[in-house]
Amino acid sequence: MPSGCSPTWRKGTTEALPGPESPDGPRLEAKVVAALERIGRALRVQLWNAVKRRGLSPVQAQILLHLRAHDETLGRVGSIAREFGLTPPTVSDSVSALEAKGLVERSASAADGRAAVLTLTPAGHAAARELQSWAAGLEEAIAAMPPADQEAALQFLLRLIEQLQRRGSITVARVCFTCRFFRPAAEQTAGEPYCALLEKPLPPAALRVDCPEHEPASA
Q: Of 55, 57, 131, 183, which sees the most CB atoms within 10 A?
């Protein structure tokens, strides 16, 4: 943009309005970022509304949901810190608070007795089940869209996660596109992506966001 010219900003958004030097408006990628930011804002509000009723912080709620969804191999403080892009001390403080609430307990790992793993108590399981529906409002909005649009959105978001991981913005991405078992559609005679581990095609709706069998592809 020439010196002396600046974009016009709409109050309450991160998206610049078209200015005199930008007849076509913001770049497409800038519009996508602005849209994702708005969705992220809505998600943060929904999560906050869900956790404050239970006397939890957003990080504490995410830890409960993480432990409910994964086995003990991902139940260590270090693993959780990498998962959410947090420091181990931050996670440890949240875990201590959850222990004090009787929702989480530490135990020796079955694979390595020297390592401590985190598990949910019965009360923790109950709290995690209640929290599962924290994004129900957004899920309902997505469900109202045509299936083809939902599938296209899933593929786009998984590709975006892949790109962000390659750039170091996301540390953990157990999605199909970053897995060594994934075979792109272009390599298949049927013209559809394929999972070499499960030995079956991967139509858009079958693509995984957090696959327990994921193994990182070589760089």
A: 131
